[in-house]
Write a structure and sequence with these properties.
Strand content of chain B: 5-15%
CATH superfamily of the largest domain in chain B: Glycerol-3-phosphate (1)-acyltransferase
Helix content of chain B: 55-70%
Radius of gyration of chain A: 11 Å
Strand order of the largest sheet of chain B: 1-6-5-2-4-3
Shape of chain A: globular
Structural class of chain B: alpha/beta
CATH superfamily of chain A: ACP-like
Oligomer: heterodimer
CATH class of chain A: Mainly Alpha
Number of domains of chain B: 2
Radius of gyration of chain B: 33 Å
CATH architecture of the largest domain in chain B: 3-Layer(aba) Sandwich
Order of helices and strands of chain A: HHH
CATH architecture of chain A: Orthogonal Bundle
CATH topology of chain A: Non-ribosomal Peptide Synthetase Peptidyl Carrier Protein, Chain A
Shape of chain B: elongated
Number of helices of chain B: 15
Distance between the termini of chain A: 16 Å
Strand content of chain A: under 5%
Largest sheet of chain B: 6 strands, mixed
Chain lengths: ~80, ~425
């Protein structure tokens, strides 16, 4: 995981869900690999929105499956990124 | 087993129409065919014994021209089986152990093994009586009486023996089975009976363009659930305590403790115009989705679910979330996920904490068995609405609510 955004997303996941840093790569799937359920996703969304000062729109939800997808969305839409 | 089942009707019918010699001859023929069939199948030796014995008896009946050897078959089989049973028990090999283990599909507990070993003595008596009946019928009664018992009667006798064993030896298992049938049967039965009337009323409201027709559906379902809980014999009473600050005109995010799958229908019997999440993807299968949506299950997971709930809160509907994420095994409140509190912040909707007590006693996590306990009191305690304080972090907000619920629960139990 190279970019600052990717690193920060990784840190937020570790902070919120007590996961191992080594288990989180860009290809890691949020539901299947990290076993995040809907409530966990809320936490993640809110933490990222507060961090990058933007809103995850509903349409983005369909294409966010992995950590890499989250990073891409932030890069594409967040003003602070 | 098939051979044994066919033996009596086959031999009696051929005897009635063709006499003893022909009956004996046909019996030999059928037995040889069975032996040949088992030979081709490469069956175990024990599969050959029954047709071999029948062939021998059939041959004897054919030679002497009398039906009596044919009558001897069930008697000989019952005595042989009784002898084998007694011998196995004396050798500490318990035939029923293997059978019951196969039925239960699991290893038996020490208590179960002890009970099954003891039951072998009971079955020795049962099988002895069966053999005695066969002896008496063979020696003293007509072919008709012999045929009735040998074809059908002995099944009824063994069935009665099994029933007696269950009633007197396996009382607890029978009670458990009965309890499960009542619990799940009532639920399924009520849902089935009320499904079409409920859908009819719902569609009427849709037709008349009622603003929130799903509320009507949930209202009717809430009455069905309330009736269901009234019928459950284990429940003595349901005690609802609602904080007076909870307003009828304000929508809320209800967060509740979670101990049993029954928490959903229980809260569903008191909360209307409510939406909630599910982590069971089957609930959103194409055939369940329409009903799931009417019941308030939000369509989607993760990101989509959040937006869906925000939309519903914006429309002044309520939301129900179990912040522990899954059912508690020991009844203690587990750590909270922050999702409900994030939702409260984003939508500026107060949270109403709910404590449920007693459902764990009915059906607990990890088990499908209904409790055998009677006089269970179910409590639903709705605490005063809460919002995040101005300088409070999200984590602190969640922790404060959790502590409030733990203290309330503890104060109730002390």
């Amino acid at each position: 995981m190279q970019s600052d955004i990717a690193k920060r997303v990784q840190e937020i996941i570790v902070e919120h869900f007590e996961k191992d840093l080594a288990d989180i790569t860009l290809d890691t799937l949020l539901e299947e690999d990290l076993e995040l359920d809907s409530l966990d996703m809320f936490d993640l969304i809110c933490a990222l929105e507060a961090e990058y000062n933007f809103i995850f729109e509903r349409e983005m939800g369909n294409s966010i499956k992995s950590v890499g997808d989250v990073v891409d969305k932030i890069k594409a839409h967040a003003p602070k990124a | 087993m098939i051979f044994f089942a066919l033996y009596v009707p086959l031999s009696v019918l051929t005897y009635v129409y063709f006499g003893s010699r022909v009956a004996g001859g046909i019996l030999v023929l059928i037995s040889v065919l069975f032996i040949f069939y088992n030979f081709l199948k490469k069956s175990e030796l024990k599969e050959f014994l029954s047709p071999l014995l029948a062939a021998l008896l059939g041959l004897t009946a054919f030679i002497i021209g009398d039906f009596e050897p044919i009558k001897a078959y069930p008697l000989i089989v019952s005595i042989l089986f009784l002898t084998f049973f007694i011998y196995s028990v004396t050798q500490k090999k318990y035939p029923l152990m293997h059978i019951i283990q196969k039925i239960k599909k699991r290893a038996l507990t020490t208590q179960e093994e002890r009970d099954i070993k003891l039951s072998h003595l009971y079955w020795i008596v049962v099988l002895s009586i069966n053999s005695l009946i066969h002896i008496i019928l063979f020696m003293n009664y007509s072919i008709k009486i012999w045929a009735i018992y040998s074809f059908l009667g002995w099944y009824l006798y063994i069935g009665l023996a099994i029933t007696v064993q269950i009633l007197f030896v396996h009382r607890k298992e029978l009670r458990q089975w009965t309890s499960n049938v009542i619990g799940y049967g009532l639920f399924g039965g009520l849902i089935t009976v009320m499904f079409f009337p409920t859908m009819l009323i719902y569609f009427l409201f849709v037709l008349f363009r009622y603003k929130k027709p799903h509320v009507i559906f949930q209202y009717i379902v809430s009455k069905i659930f309330r009736f269901y809980f009234l019928l459950i014999p284990n429940i003595e009473k349901i005690d609802l305590k609602k904080d007076p600050e909870i307003s009828d005109t304000q929508n809320y995010i209800y967060i509740s403790t979670h101990q049993s799958w029954l928490d959903y229908p229980l809260l569903g019997s008191y909360l209307i115009d409510i939406y909630h999440l599910t982590n069971k993807k089957e609930a959103l299968s194409w055939y369940l989705k329409p009903i799931a949506k009417l019941l308030g299950i939000v369509d989607g997971f993760g990101f989509n679910a959040l937006h869906e709930l925000l939309k519903k809160l914006d429309q002044k509907s309520n939301v129900l979330i179990f912040p522990e994420g899954s059912r508690s095994i020991d009844g203690e409140i587990q750590s909270f996920k922050n999702g409900a509190f994030s939702l409260s912040l984003k939508s500026d909707t107060p949270i109403v904490p709910i404590i449920i007590e007693g459902t764990k006693k009915l059906v607990k996590k990890g088990s499908y068995n209904w409790s055998l306990e009677k006089s269970i009191t179910i409590r639903i305690i709705m605490l005063a609405p809460q919002k995040k304080m101005p300088n409070e972090s999200l984590n602190a907000f969640a922790q404060r609510i959790r502590t409030l619920m733990i203290v309330s629960q503890k104060n109730r139990n002390d």
